[in-house]
Amino acid sequence: MSGKPRLTYLNGRGRMEPIRWLLAAAGVEFEEVYLETKEQYDKLIKDGFLLFQQVPLVEIDGMKMVQTRAIMSYIAGKYNLYGKDLKERALIDMYVEGMFDLNELLMTHGYQPAEKKEEHYANMIDKTENRYFPVFEKVLKDHGKDFLVGNQLSRADVQLLEIILMAEEWKPNVLAKFPLLQSFKARISNIPTIKKFLQPGSQRKPLIREEDVPKVIKIFY
Amino acid sequence: MSGKPKLYYFDGRGKMESIRWLLAAAGVEFEEEFLETREQYEKLLQGGSLMFQQVPMVEIDGMKMVQTRAILSYIAAKYNLYGKDLKERALIDMYVGGTDDLMGFILMFPFLSAEDKEKQRAFIVQKATSRYFPVYEKVLKDHGQDFLVGNNFSWADVHLLEAILMVEEKKSDVLSGFPQLQAFKARISSIPTIKKFLEPGSQRKPVPDDKYVETVRRVLRMYYDIKAN
User: Which of A70, A86, A87 sits opposite B90 (nearest CB)?
Assistant: First the structure.
């Protein structure tokens, strides 16, 4: 037993990726167990590992944690990435909940059936460029500081960088109208723990490939 | 300016209802502004009050808060309904995540076609009785305490009571296999602030009807079909 957090999920991004980002940003080493078959998944459920029969699962500090938000709040709280008081926390939570909504769109695009892809893409990019990115551009513009909240690195900064990179995978010039997000991206990418996570060989996962989608669906359905 | 939190939403449950429950449970009086027209909504948008162009929005402590989870977490922490340390908080967050998922299946219910409603009702009951209720039944059985976490009243208890009552509206005897949850329901319902909220005349909203659906669609210009799970 290594004492390191242990993540159980698919060998892919999905709902576990923001958790990987946050642990990496906090400089926390973690282990991973990959679900490859339905039998493995059913066994986890049978053995009582999954509180609501779902992954992500993160074994950390003696707990079998499920529910992405619960896991991320715990990690952020533990590693001082959640602001210094209740009001900073409120701001972080607002920003991060918006990012979760956007992440849902970006993350599910790869799983859309062919006939829905175009509409999904249009909606996804529209929301990115007109609903979410303008908010964070304005936050940075208004206070002129390096980080989104309280002049120090928080989970909001980590999650925003993740979202920016995901959006760029679908539309490379998506930051064209957002100069402050461009400099934010450069700045946060340079933080040593994050820089390391962005290098090849890290535990960051690639975009799901179309040919892998049926295999994923078979594990859960 | 009264100093009371002010809630901006439709005159109905939706995503704001959990916030009403939590404020009421904490004994906090609040005001409400109901969205009835598109113009009202556009005025809020133009005024920059809605960070992501969405409601719920709650004015509280000088902030215009949006995002239901952010608002609930803030209220829970402010009124000591979030456990005593990080680990209790983690448990509360996990439990609330479950009841949130369960209530999410009910959220879309009024927007479904009659045929889809029957399918969804069965889906809700199946998930409640096979995935969610057994978890909370076991938690209460294992520690034998009155409250879900830390032997203290918390957000998790309020959220679970809300979920139980909502599922019961879909199937009145749904708790029949869950004796711990039956006792829990009676116990939490008797807490004075909650008892008051459950009485007629409180700010608790009724089961959504067609008028509610019509209002939401009109104000948000949300005319597309919503599918069942």
Answer: A70
